[in-house]
């Protein structure tokens, strides 16, 4: 499945914008999910670094004309193989398009290239007391374009919403090279179809984003955080559910189970207690203490052992660092074990205690380590299943456990992925979640906008009997 | 352009679910926008009242098969002819599908039929301290389905967002009768294309919504409101801009100019001062007085003449009633004058003073009454132009003024409609706003999902040279 990419030489690209070197191709064939499982994608035939919208347009038009797949790539921090080329072709690396194009603090808006790192947006606007609330935990290494591709979200989503809620307008390039602008600078619009939110979360299968207009929020005057330690995981999850339904207005409310805490301690040298915990942060302009008191009261109803708020910035930074790096801590825990499918499921908050309980129960039943953590207030759970890749029996049990939890999330009215996308890893769950009619509707849109299946083929949609790419049969 | 609808007799519908009576057809050929301008739509050939999803599916499948247009209809409160049949056929009246299907207060969620009146949702959940924040000013007469069709918004959007932000999942029927479910009960998802937000705002041209899962919010503990009176409209709009960019956290911030106030007094017998005003409401769980003080300080910087907060419920109810009924007050003001195009434009908040100033300046220049009001905090402006429908010269000047403001909104980075949709009235502005590429992308989606142009033909998209409906040529 190699594709002739020599046409790139005829485009108006500088020498350093194209590479066919093995090292470059290999580095663009993995992401954080696939590299753990050694099921790397097919190597791209070439890597291209566009520096302007016109570059993206030229590459897409020419690639579509020649039937060459194009897979957008940036930081490579996805977990489901979203940006890993499944059919070779071109890896379109957008990291050089990382400019702040325009910044309008009075309107709480910033226009950025897709390659900008999330935390660089925060840094750019911090001086005006603004911030970009929906950054994921990987915000200091992931790009805005990648976050848009998967409709990412993070610790503050429980209060502020997901990436889609903060993208006002896009410039994007369609498969045939057409440049479109969606949305406007008005904070609301009813004008025509909402192409912005169709492109957000489409994982580069419908268009390549070349510029995004993001909304910003004013930094709250009062920010306080801390942790609550419980005796049982059931108490912790019930407390979270109760706090959310009581509308305590928390800005972060993260579950960390005892096993995850142990792994964090191993990895970071921290000294978190080996107990179920909830990490908290409250944002307010007034009355943050009253919010904390309300939360404490609710947590006490659920038998919280310790409820510790901190005014120490360094202490809080260390707490949040531990939470942010849990995914790495899980990976590093045991060199003989690898975390299977480190993505997430998300359920209605009322179902959160059940999905967490089942994940742990199944781990016990199958004698597997299942560290559980996540953005609890969203009903989001990351449950990695650790397994020895050289032990087929253990792998099979781990796969079974993993599937049972995804299926349970669906039974409970949830989604198979709250924030990491379908990519390659969760394609078989698309139809169980949405039903045949909705999936066929998605396919119809894909076929209409990208009839040659140029853009990121082999993602989102389950395999079809007659092969996935329309034009692969030709090769 | 009459369509043979006798096939309806073969469907499993009761006698009282179908009517071809003139009175019924006529009542389904107007909305609040068209009835003022006597440019009523084409009469539908039949009106159908579905009572369940299967009815909608059967009607759409049969109509698509026979090339008969279907235009969804409900309360008829649109302003742009959105639900007025442009090509005859069937008016699909969804008002009987008005059930609360399920209510999950612990998850802040309610599932409703599209025909339910907005305020009935609020009434249903009020006992649990919940409410549905994005209701438009017509929330006590408009249906949820209609709000979804135009992605409506209202006075509280400045704080809580628009309808799209509160729709979690949909059941909808495609043109061929396929029933699809979009979204999930999880509060976030990255699973597949966002069909929910594609359908929201598509004005019934892509699918007919048969059930919606709405998110709810907890009612704030502190609600206080009042009004600020300014000497000049410029002061009022600059004060709003300053308050928004200072992030005062206001829940309602509405502009009412002196002319609108006079019209409200005439219509309601109220005694609002004949001066530019800003109506305000603050929602908080703590510190509402501090929020009010911050806003007062900012307004004082802009020379506010009076800043009057009220604790009197009846007084506040009367204030908000005046604001809500402004559209009717403008219509009723002078029997010889009619408001031309009563929709809205919306601009970035920094451009709000300019768009309001220009609307008034052009009114003076052309000797036309231009009452200005709107959801100022969103940058939203309703500027009706009053004109004598029997005076062609005045009508032409009024049309010119109306167009100039829409075009100015676009120049300022705004949208031609923040909350009422394109319908029939604003089709010529779709391409100036979005560009040819984005409009063609919208058309491609429409053609892919509804190849026979069954669903609400003649809306959103500008006329094409070869006629708008694919199959009209057959007749």
From TrEMBL, chains A, B:
One of the protein's GO biological processes: lactate catabolic process
Which Pfam families would you find in this protein's record? FAD-oxidase_C, FAD_binding_4
Could you tell me which InterPro entries the record lists for this protein? FAD-bd_oxidored_4_C (IPR004113), FAD-bd_PCMH (IPR016166), FAD-bd_PCMH-like_sf (IPR036318), FAD-bd_PCMH_sub2 (IPR016169), FAD-linked_Oxase-like_C (IPR016164), Oxid_FAD_bind_N (IPR006094), Vanillyl_alc_oxidase_C-sub2 (IPR016171)
Q: Which domain of life is it from?
A: Archaea
The molecular function terms of the Gene Ontology recorded here are: D-lactate dehydrogenase (cytochrome) activity; D-lactate dehydrogenase (NAD+) activity; FAD binding
**Which PROSITE patterns does this one have?**
FAD_PCMH
Name what cofactor the protein needs.
Answer: FAD
User: Does this UniProt record's set of keywords contain 4Fe-4S?
Assistant: no
Q: Where are the annotated segments for Disordered?
A: 450-475
Which Enzyme Commission numbers does its entry carry?
Answer: 1.1.2.4
Where exactly are the transmembrane stretches of this chain?
none
Limits of the FAD-binding PCMH-type domain:
40-219
Task: Tell whether Methyltransferase is among the UniProt keywords.
Answer: no
Sorted alphabetically, which keywords does the UniProt record give? Answer: FAD, Flavoprotein, Oxidoreductase, Transit peptide
Q: What is this protein called?
A: D-lactate dehydrogenase (cytochrome)
């Amino acid at each position: 499945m190699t594709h002739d990419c020599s046409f790139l030489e005829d485009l108006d690209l500088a020498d350093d914008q194209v590479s066919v070197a093995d090292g470059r191709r290999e580095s663009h064939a993995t992401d954080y999910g696939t590299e753990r499982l050694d099921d790397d994608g097919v190597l791209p035939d070439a890597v291209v670094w566009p520096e302007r919208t016109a570059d993206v347009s030229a590459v897409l038009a020419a690639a579509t004309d020649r039937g060459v797949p194009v897979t957008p790539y940036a930081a490579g921090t996805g977990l489901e193989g979203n940006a890993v080329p499944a059919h070779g072709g071109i890896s379109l690396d957008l990291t050089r398009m990382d400019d702040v194009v325009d910044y309008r603090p009075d309107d709480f808006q910033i226009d950025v290239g897709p390659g900008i790192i999330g935390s660089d947006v925060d840094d750019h606007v911090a001086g005006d007391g603004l911030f970009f609330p929906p950054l994921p935990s990987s915000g200091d290494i992931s790009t805005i374009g990648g976050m848009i591709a998967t409709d990412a979200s993070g610790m503050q989503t429980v209060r502020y919403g997901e990436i889609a809620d903060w993208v006002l307008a896009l410039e994007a390039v369609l498969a045939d090279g057409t440049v479109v602008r969606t949305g406007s600078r008005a904070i609301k619009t009813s004008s025509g179809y909402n192409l912005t939110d169709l492109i957000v979360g489409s994982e580069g299968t419908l268009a390549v984003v070349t510029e995004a207009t993001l909304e910003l929020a004013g930094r709250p005057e009062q920010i306080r955080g801390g942790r609550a330690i419980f005796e049982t995981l059931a108490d912790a999850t019930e407390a979270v559910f109760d706090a959310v339904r009581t509308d305590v207005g928390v800005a972060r409310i993260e579950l960390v189970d005892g096993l995850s805490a142990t792994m964090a301690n191993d990895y970071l040298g921290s000294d978190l207690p080996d107990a179920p915990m909830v990490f908290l942060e409250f944002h307010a302009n007034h009355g943050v203490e009253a919010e904390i008191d309300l939360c404490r009261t609710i947590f006490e109803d659920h038998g919280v052992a310790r409820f510790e708020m901190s005014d120490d910035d360094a202490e809080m930074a260390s707490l949040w660092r531990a939470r942010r790096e849990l995914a790495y801590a899980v990976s590093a825990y045991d060199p003989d074990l690898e975390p299977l499918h480190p993505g997430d499921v998300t359920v209605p908050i009322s179902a959160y205690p059940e999905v967490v309980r089942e994940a742990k129960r199944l781990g016990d039943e199958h004698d597997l380590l299942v560290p559980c953590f996540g953005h609890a207030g969203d009903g989001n759970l990351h449950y990695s299943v650790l397994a020895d890749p050289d032990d087929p029996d253990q792998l099979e049990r781990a796969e079974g456990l993993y599937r049972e939890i995804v299926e349970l999330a669906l039974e409970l009215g949830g989604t198979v992925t709250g924030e990491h996308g379908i990519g390659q890893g969760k394609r078989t769950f698309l139809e169980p979640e949405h039903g045949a009619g909705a999936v066929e509707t998605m396919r119809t849109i894909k076929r209409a906008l990208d009839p040659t299946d140029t853009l990121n083929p082999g993602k989102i949609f389950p395999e079809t009997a007659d092969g996935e790419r329309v034009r692969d049969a030709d090769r």
